[in-house]
Amino acid sequence: MLRKLLTLFAALCTAVGVAVMLPAASAGAAPACVTAWNSSTVYTGGKTASYNGRNWYAKWWTQNERPGSSDVWRDEGACGTGGGDDGGQNNGFVVSEAQFNQMFPNRNPFYTYAGLVNALKSYPAFANTGSDTVKKQEAAAFLANVSHETAGLYYIVEQNTANYPHYCDAGKPYGCPAGQAAYYGRGPIQLSWNFNYKAAGDALGIDLLNNPWRVEQDPAVAMSTGLWYWNTQNGPGTMTGHNAMVNGAGFGETIRSINGTLECNGGNPAQVQSRVTRYQQFTQILGVPTGANLYC
Questions:
Q1: Which of 126, 129, 230, 240 is the most exposed place for a label (fewest CB within 10 A)?
Q2: CA-CA distance, 258 to 273, in Å (whole number)?
Q3: In a 10 Å sphere around its CB, with 0-12 CB exposed, 13-18 middle and 19+ buried, how is residue 66 labelled?
Q4: What distances in angstroms separate CA 94 from CA 47, 260, 290, one per listed residue?
Q5: What sections of the chain are H helices per DSSP?
Q6: pLDDT single digits (tens) 119-145
Q7: How far, in Å, CA of 227 to CA of 124, rounded?
Q8: Residue 14 and residue 8: Cα distance in Å, rounded?
Q9: For the chain, percent of residues with pLDDT exceeding 90
Q10: How far apart are CA 142 and CA 182, in angstroms?
């Protein structure tokens, strides 16, 4: 109503030759991106998904129909992180969205840049410690290992289903409430075992012990579990991936922390080389040297 009155007032003033500046309408922040579209998920009418930086609404039942490719999806507009920030375009992360897309040209639509940026909030020291070179080296190291673990951010879950029942340590006091075969590898560093789901969930404030499927349903949760491991877990190594990169131990020590028991000390040189090659490619994209100690 106020704006209508101001508009009428402006029209009257214009008629008598007086210039009036109306206040510009405020452009609200883009809404947050909902859970990313997944080709294997069944969407019934009313369900939503995000894809290519936009939210979409399913009008009726659909599966494996990419948003924007058919009339089943209604475009709800551009989305970001919400809250009036920059829409998830960068938020200070040393890897731009364009560089992320260059690193993962064939990634599954589930893995989004916005999901990664949202996950950074849980671990602000990641890729934000030391010099600009060190920050970019750490980002490249994490993403290189992630790329190796998921075939370029293509796989969301572990492909060898025969392993699924093995990841339940029933001797833990909390057991395996989601089922013996529920704790298979998921996400960018393939989180597995009931005790890791509990530890990651406790650290992130999410009940992953009872609902491990969230890691394969929510891009931000998936990326958060990867960052949880990278920033807090030594694995079979002697330090976290984060500490290895910011303290100068080198990329090789990040391999040891993730899968050193099977790959390092000559255990599987081809797998180690795969990780190193990706790291070399990613540091080149970010314009920084690799640093020393590439191998384990």
A1: 129
A2: 14
A3: middle
A4: 34, 27, 16
A5: 2-15, 97-103, 113-119, 132-150, 194-204, 219-232, 241-246, 251-263, 269-286
A6: 999 999 999 999 999 999 999 999 999
A7: 10
A8: 10
A9: 68
A10: 26
Assigned token pair, 207: 């009940």
Q: Torsions phi, psi of 54, nearest 5?
A: -135, 150
* 149 counts as catalytic: yes
- Widest pairwise Cα distance in the chain: 87
Domain 30-87 sits in CATH at 2.10.10.20
Q: Does position 74 have pLDDT exceeding 50, yes or no? A: yes
Q: Catalytic: which of 97, 138, 149, 158?
A: 149
Question: Span 220-227, mean pLDDT?
Answer: 95
Any residues with CB less than 8 A from the CB of 21 and at least 6 apart, and which? none
Q: Which of 139, 180, 74 is nearest to 282 (CA)?
A: 139
What angle is formed at CA 100 by the lines to CA 189 and CA 114, rounded to 5 degrees? 75
Please tell me the distance from the alpha carbon of residue 193 to that of residue 164, in angstroms, as a whole number: 9
All structural domains of the chain with their residue ranges: 30-87
Mean pLDDT, to the nearest integer, of 94-109?
95
pLDDT band at 116 (very low <50, low <70, confident <90, very high): very high
Per-residue confidence (pLDDT) for residue 165, from 0 to 100: 96
